[in-house]
Amino acid sequence: MVAHFPALLVIIPLIGAPICMLVRVRDWSWAVATICTWASFAISWLLLQQVISDGSISYQMGGWAPPIGIEYRIDMANAFVMLIVTGIGSVIMPYARESVRAEYGVRRVYFFYTSYLLCFCGLLGVAATGDAFNLFVFLEINSLATYVLVGMGKDRRALTAAYQYLVLGTIGATFIVIGIGLLYAETGTLNMYDLADRIEKVGASRTIGAAFAFLVVGISLKLALFPLHLWLPNAYTYAPSMVSAFLAATATKVAVYVLLRFLFSVFNIELTFDVLPLDYILAALAVIAMFAASTVAIFQENLKRMLAYSSVAQIGYIVLGISLHNAAGVTASVLHLFNHAIIKGGMFLALGCIVYRLGTVNIHHLQGIGRRMPLTTAALVTGGLGLIGVPLTAGFVSKWYLVIAAIEKGWWPLGLLVLLSSLLAVVYVWRIVEVAYMKPVPENAEQVEEAPSSLLFPTFILIGASIYFGIDTDLPLDAAIETAKQLTGNGE
Amino acid sequence: MRSYLVLRVVSKLLMPFILLFALYVQFHGDFGPGGGFQAGVIFASAFILYALIFGVKDAGAVLPRGILRFGIAMGVLLYAGVGVFNLLVGGNFLDYNVMAKDPTLGQHLGIWLVELGVGLTVASVMVTIFFTFAGHRDRPQ
Amino acid sequence: MFLDYFNYWIVVFLMMAGFYIVIAHDNLIKKIVGLNIFQASVFVLYISFGKITGGTAPIIAEGFSVYSNPLPHVLILTAIVVGVATTALGLALVVRINEAYGTIEDDEIHKADEEED
Fold it and tell me: Is the ipTM here above 0.90?
């Protein structure tokens, strides 16, 4: 059974989804979803250990040998991303029970968990597969389930947010499929590692260049890279609390993994960054994202929308690291994938606690909340410190590596820009601190108590992890360094 | 639609042939164009024709929601179940060679079962989509 | 040159027409139709790759030695199913939006949203 782990990782949630659909007794669909998520987490942890000790794993689907068959190839990048996705999912599932039950009532909960398991399975499939078209199929499974999850928000604007996300996401996915088709036409194969060999022989022909352009634009749309980020603020703001946290922590991260895989493994580094000037384009867009999105975040009144724009800025940091394309840059990107996932996931969970008690996250209604819900606000502010990059938080480590990478490459103005944009993050985190702690509680405010422990516990696990991994950085840092070495070192 | 005699009689005559054609397309997928998805859609179109002529409520009595939901879930479970069965017997996931003594027979059996699962799910999904849209009443604002 | 690559000219025309419809029209259902046209152009692109000059249908038969490539056909089937699912989901969302807002024109929905929170 151990040899089949790559397939089991994706299949267990896929089997769990129809079972959830059939099980409609009270909360049992939540139990099925939690068991599948925790099982996937255990498998992905074991897979990571196996990859660290033995090297890349290759699994042939259906017994057909690659490059004819579909292959699941797990190396360090895959295993790390799958660990992040399953880890966040496992922490959020206990949170989801109370939160989803409060927002939907017990009878319709099974639809929610069916869609959640399909989304989860899609994310894991995208990360695990080594075949380009299989990646598109799982990406679409994930995206369609995400549109359903976002559309389940209580506000009626969740529907328009889901529709906008659907149109933009489908355009992105269609661009990706055009790129894959052009690659197939030029090389005759769909296996990513075989593609890498053949592209190296063909060089930068016009078809390869066109395929490259379509793929990068399509993936950037899924990634919410500026200026293709328009779907993100609405989707994160109006989705249910648990969905916002899960998406913020996983969906864009897996899209970054797809970008890394295509840029570094399929198209080799010389083609991507020397022949085609992608490093300047990505760096410029990333810097604009960092500044523009942080600035817009300062003026938002809805806290979820503020954190959504902050996510666009953080994705700018990740893409900046990719554009530097040296080992330190890719290390910083992969490290920030991990850190941003836990920080943003934790902050959205804290906001979900506030929604559970107060029903709103409009900043004007949250005056004095530091006194009314002290634990939740402490979690929120600690996460905010991680966004700024205060030392001792996880955000500091990734920004440190990003500045080092910029200096190593000789583009030290970029390092300065990273520090300047962190100052913008101080402004919007200060707004939260000011309203929560320094404004008095209004007289006609309703009496609210702290959020229930089933909601607080996962929040504190994630925020605590952001502090822990800021102090003891061994696990994520080693994984990130190894990933960067594999991606940039051997141009397979 | 109840008052159009020609429509009612012709559609009642055609429906069994549509269903039979769907089954033909399903089982001849490895010899000609066809397979699970196409067969599922043709199968669903027979029930949609019935719903168009005789009303969604009567069609809903033929295929109640519970059976449709069961069909959707069972198709996916059949597909995944075949894969897991292959895992347990000793091959890789979805490796049909190990399903029977002779690899060719195993391939035939595996593809047949998997396409059956696909056809079942697709037919149930198409009918569910139609019933949901057609039976939807605008809720008052 | 035009007749040699006739299929690909059609692909480009359909792709741009579909994309333009998605961007330019305000009606939500027209956007979904535009998306469908955009995806249909991708199907034509893939199938045009698959045809090999002088090849027959990819089913083994006596007397034929050159067959068209069957792989793009399978890829297109998958992409068609994805397109159908996306269209169904989009239309379901439009039905719910109509219920919630009373309209399916994008600009009217924006105006209603701005007047809220």
Answer: yes
